[in-house]
Amino acid sequence: MSFTLKKQGDVVVVDVEGQLIVGNRQELKQKVLDEVEKGERKFLIDFAQTGYIDSSGLGVLVSLSKKIREHGGELRLADLNDDLQTLFELTKLDTLFQISDTRERALEGF
Amino acid sequence: MSFTLKKQGDVVVVDVEGQLIVGNRQELKQKVLDEVEKGERKFLIDFAQTGYIDSSGLGVLVSLSKKIREHGGELRLADLNDDLQTLFELTKLDTLFQISDTRERALEGF
Amino acid sequence: MREPHVVRAPSIKPASGLPAAHETHGEPRPGVSQPRLNEPRVAVDVDIPSDVSQIERVVSLVTDLCRDLSLPKRHYTLNIPVALSEALSNAIIRGNHEDPSKYVHLRATVSDVALVIDVTDEGSGFDMRDIAHDPTSPEDLQREDGRGLFLMRQLMDRVEQIHGPHHILRLTLNR
Amino acid sequence: MREPHVVRAPSIKPASGLPAAHETHGEPRPGVSQPRLNEPRVAVDVDIPSDVSQIERVVSLVTDLCRDLSLPKRHYTLNIPVALSEALSNAIIRGNHEDPSKYVHLRATVSDVALVIDVTDEGSGFDMRDIAHDPTSPEDLQREDGRGLFLMRQLMDRVEQIHGPHHILRLTLNR
Ligand SMILES: Nc1ncnc2c1ncn2[C@@H]1O[C@H](COP(=O)(O)OP(=O)(O)O)[C@@H](O)[C@H]1O
Ligand SMILES: Nc1ncnc2c1ncn2[C@@H]1O[C@H](COP(=O)(O)OP(=O)(O)O)[C@@H](O)[C@H]1O
Q1: D154 in contact with B, Cβ within 8 Å
Q2: I want to staple C95 with a disulfide (CB 3.0 to 4.6 A). Which of B61, C70, C72, C123 is the partner?
Q3: How far apart are CA B47 and CA B65, in angstroms?
Q4: A91 vs C93: CB contact, 8 Å cut-off?
């Protein structure tokens, strides 16, 4: 389980490797908030290498999105596999986020 | 779990994919004996894709070796990983078979 | 449900330790014959320290078991890992308040008809019927918490509580 | 060792269903305090039809568990699969004579100190002490059978029998 942050253009891209769950979501939250603090405004979380996400992981995405919006920025998501897509649909969180099929497509429009 | 037999030169090469155990060893035995029946005399079993072998799997190797020798042929082995090498050493069956590191090396001297 | 691991021979009646189709709930009915087993039937018991860092590995353990027993792929990549994570984190955080002197017990059984997971904590329990809000409603969609029970209910065929000396949440997923 | 799966709350005493360091054999000693658990402690029970085609999948189940619980790699790639296959095939073939009305029961427990596997069959048992020939001796090296117990003894730290209403073979591998 690890989170890797990389800058692509003016977008901070976060790779989530493994699970995003109650045991590690604080780490993701802190890493992203640190970047907001430094002035970053555009964030993309790429789930290509993600296993499953629990409700507390979803909760962190919601709260990060809110916080980033408060700073005039945006959090987008990319590369959800079928299971994750289902999870976002079940919780209707697919209506809250802009979700792209691939990282490239997400970066294009950002 | 499957056994694939291929002719390379005058050697019948058998690939053991998965386990060689009580549940499938008869299949291996029959396939090899069919070839002996057809007149084949040189056999090489390649364990590159093999998981584990139980005592009945070892037993089949011993009995095939004996049968092939009775017909003036030989059964050689190749590509044992560390676990299988240990198993052959524990049972001293490494003294009964000519064992090569690779299929190529086994075929060279045959 | 658990007893000391003493040297004693068990009586072998297939499925006696495991739920058969007709006895997933309640006492086995006398006179009802046991169905013939054609597949291994499995029960796993896990004692888990009240530490959320344990969840991932316990979930792997159960999902690997389900894969080995040929449950549908989606079950062990989505339904089970998510619902089980929820049940375990509620038990560890809400039930046991992460108290290191307390444990969570998991019992998962896989039969030909269903996966049944009991998660027992040492807390005072709660009443599931009180948790009926809809986290997908516009008012609640932006809330950070409150999706745990909702997800379990969505992803499992049944979510039940057993109130006894300890609080048990039972998740059932039909095969 | 097994009981009907009834709706009843278990008492949560860590390790009560699982062997602790000092009680891997025999009754738990009263007055000896339970060691604190820092890792999940696991017991798995499997009812297995008396059919050798079941062995591979039951072995995967146990080796996956051992991998998830971070046992040494060699243990779950060599020692456990080979020794467990031997125990299961002996139970199915020698013990139960592949009678489809009989079952083999496996109970595997993983604690911080050891993996303990009990394989119970419905046969009349045998005396392990009678099986002491050396299959690596020149006379026996070319025999097709007779390597099962030898391999279990080589690959496990302990191989024991428990004679009761049913025959149990117990394999122990220290961590
Ligand atoms: N095992 C438990 N013991 C006590 N209370 C619980 C337990 N599980 C859930 N609850 C209660 O149910 C509420 C709703 O749980 P849930 O839907 O998972 O959302 P969340 O945990 O995010 O609040 C919790 O806030 C808690 O009050
Ligand atoms: N579960 C069992 N029930 C009855 N007899 C057994 C059992 N396991 C082993 N035996 C006896 O012990 C003998 C030796 O077993 P083993 O060393 O595994 O070699 P093999 O099974 O190849 O003969 C068997 O031939 C059988 O007579």
Answers
A1: yes
A2: C123
A3: 16
A4: no
